[in-house]
Structures are given as C-alpha cells and as structure tokens.
Amino acid sequence: MPVRLRRRPRVFAAVGVFAVLAVAAVFRFWALGRPGTLVFDELYYVRDAITQLAHGFPTAWPDDDPGMATGFTDEPSFAVHPPLGKWIIALGLAVLGDATGWGWRSAVALTGVATVAVTMRLGWRISRSAGVAMFAGLFLAVDGVHVVLTRVGLLDGILTFFVVLGALFMWRDHEWVTERTRVARGGLPVLWARPWLVAAAAAFGCAAAVKWSGLYPLAALLLLTAARDTIVRFSVAHEARRPLGLTSDLDAQRHASYARATGTALLQAAATGLLAIPIAVAVYVANWFGWIFTAGGWGRSAGWVAGLWQYHVDMFAWHSTLSAPHPYQAHPLTWPFGLRPTAMYFEALDSGLVQVISPIPNVLITWGGVAALLVLAWWAIRALRRPATLIRSRSLAAHGAYAAAFVVVCYLSGWLPWVLTVSRSAVFQFYAVVLTPFSALALALVVGVICKRRGSLEETSGRRMAVAVFVTAAVILSLAFFPVWSGAPIPEGFWRWHLWLPSWG
After folding, report:
1. Ranges for the Protein O-mannosyl-transferase C-terminal four TM domain (predicted)?
2. β-pair partners for 329
3. Which residues, including other chains, have CB under 8 Å from residue 360's CB and lie 6 or more apart?
4. Per-residue pLDDT averaged across 107-114, rounded?
5. pLDDT > 90: what percent of the chain?
6. Distance set, CA 339 to CA 96, 165, 291, 335, 374 (Å)
7. Helix, strand, or coil (residue 118)
8. Taking the domains of the chain in order of start, what are their residue ranges?
9. Which residues are paired to 354 by β-bridges?
10. What is the pLDDT of residues 265-297, one digit of tens each?
C-alpha cells in the first residue's frame, strides 16, 4: 500500500505532462497546412531551406511568388541569417515535401512542442513541483505569440527552443556547482570539468546558428553564473572561518579568507568563459557545414575561413544598415505587452469570410507574465539587500533568490539588448517569442507560491479556486483567439471582435 501511495503522484504528474504536451501539439499541428502558400517571411526562410537541401547553401529564385510555382536557380543567394534554422525547416521538407504548408511548417511546430516540454522540465528543476512545471507548460502551450511563431516557417520559434534548452543546461550547471559546494572544505577550487556548462554552450551555439540574437542569453547567463560563483565562494569562505572562534587575529583571517575567495572567483569567471565561449563558437561554425563543404555558395570563391569571415562582415553590415519602414514595425519597449502584433497573413474570401494569421497575445498570460516577472524581480532585489544572508546560505536556490534572478535574467536577455541597441526600423513584435517561455515560467512560479502559501483552510481554498478560475479563463481565451492564430475562415465581424486594442489591427 505505501508503494502505491508513492507511485500515484508520479502517475498523476506523468498524465498531466502528457496532457499539456497534447494541448501544445493540437494548438500547433491543427490545420497546419493552412494556408497553402508562403506567409510573411516564409518567402525567404522556406526558400532558403529548399535550396539548402538541394545545394548545401541558399540559391536564388527568379520571382517572389508565394505559391512557389517557379523553381529555384543555381545562382548563390546572400542569406542574412545563419543556416541552422533553415536546416531544421528542411527536415520537414525532406519528409513531407514542399507541396503543402505541412512540409515547411511541421519541423517548426515540432520544435514548438519540444519547447513546451523543455520549459516544463526547467520549471520542475527550479521548483521541484510538478504543478509549477505543468502550469509553465500549459501557459506556454496556449500563448498566442508562441503558438503563431511555431505554426509558421520562420526562424524565431526554432531560436526559442535552443535558448530554453541552453537555460535548462545552465540551471543544471547551477545545481552541479551547488552540490560540490556542499562538500567543499576549506575553499572551493576552480572548476573546469563542468559538463552542464559545456552542454549549455553548445545549445547557445546552436541558438546563434539560427539567429545571432541567440548570443544575448549566453552572455547574460555567463555574467549571472560568474556572480553566482562569486557568492558561492564567499559562502564557502564564510563557513570555513566559523570554527576559528574569537582569536586575536580573527579580522586578519577573515580578510585573508575573503581575499582568497575573491581571487578564486575571478579565476573561476575566467575559466567559465574560456570553457563556454570556444565551445559555442565551434558549434556555431560547425553549423555552416553545408556552405563549408560545398563549392558555389555566396562568397565561397576564397578559402573557407577567409570567405566565412567576409560573409559575416557583409551580414553585419546588412543588419546594421537596414532601413525598411514597415506598417507592423514595433519598438522593443512595446514587446512585453504585445501592443503591435505582426499580421502575417490576411485574405478576404469570396464567401465573405476572411483568413487571418496574427500573433495577438493572450492578455491573461502575456500581461500576467509581466506582472509575475516584476514580482520575481522584487524577490531577487529584496534578497540582494541582505548580502550577508546570501553569503551564509549554502544553497541559493533554497530561498528562491537565485531562481527568481535566473528567470528574470533569461527574460531580460532576450529583450533588453534590443531596447538598448535598436537603431533600425525593421524590428517586429514576433521577435519577442523568445521571451514567452520565461514569462510563462515566471507566471507559473508565482501561481505556485499562491497555491502553496500557508493560511487557513478557507484562505487556501479561496486562493486555489482563484488560480483555477484564472487558468480556465486563460485556456478559454486561447480557444477564442485560435482562429486568428491559425488562419481559419471566419466572419469579418468575428475577426474585428478580437481587436481589443486599436494597434492590434
């Protein structure tokens, strides 16, 4: 009987996880071939994927027909993004062909479901709560921005997968270091053999090989890791000096102990960078294999090292000088609230119906996630106001300060660099899809705290009922918006009903 009692929660958790993944799959694969023509920037990325599959590098098309009635040529094309995302799109094309949207969208949809799975895993590792993990997965599964960007053959949904995977591996590295801190005596040596850090660097190398913006989270999390390692070493130094007692040279010993901790923290930061950055670069370069090992690609006439360097110089120049005003351009400051969604497809049908694909946000999840991130940021800042407490703690995750900081930094790493550096007009709301897993995770963590907060039976029941109502309303809202996320034929009046803000049209 005790064995059954222990196994029952695991069964419920497994059922819940598979149910969330089923919801994610339905939202992404239902009528995935609709419409049967290229939408928005599929015109570029899907065509690059088709020609990469044929030649190993992108080649040109003679026209801009979204129906792809004409074929491609052998003339190399200047692709302005690295090749990995297009290779992943090509996997679906290799299996299903390019006759329907299923071919060029199925691999992206699959990465969307995988992102939900990885987000749940990250939620569980952070909270050790199956409920929090399932909330995080469900919020992401029905998030409008993530749903749309994993139903079209664009790169950003794929980028999001690798960013979340890298974040999961970075969290595992935190756990790995924390475990070694518990058994440290007299000081913690510089750690070189960090398998989870290696895995994270490889994941972020793949993220950068989809879009260069995948480098932002790697840089941010390396800085956070350096700060975490510093606090860990001061924790070990603090514990190591406690048995000294009240001796005449206690202050000198304390200062010497902290000086050693500072020195090893700096060495550890250098070691972390020397370990992670070359791996990320090597993985990034390896993803150019098609261009490297074939002849005829753009700029491939010289040796591949010099040619690849010049290719990147040209890519950087293109991105830094791009000036292409667009009716759906959106300043990064508006991204967290989804104030200017990028309408990717609109077609008025002869029957009086319309077809729309627009990543209009589910406001309960998107705006609720922003509120939850502010709560997590407050938790982290409040802990920083008591540095002595952080130093004395042998497990930063135990009181949630590092967990809160980790989620907030992951979110900011995909948003703040754009706010600080954007200098071109052609930036769009859908770039914010990389924020959605961390917004969902923040919301799930806050919801988990609300559900588990101590109080009377009546108070606890009331809070859990409020959470149940919120989650139910969020799912119902996503069902109501799914037709405009998926290009379903709908009456124009029904489409207009979804335009809750003037900027959503």
Report:
1. 307-504
2. 428
3. 144, 338, 341, 481, 484, 485, 498, 504
4. 98
5. 62
6. 36, 28, 39, 7, 19
7. helix
8. 21-36+100-287+322-504
9. 348, 490
10. 788 888 899 999 999 999 999 999 999 999 888
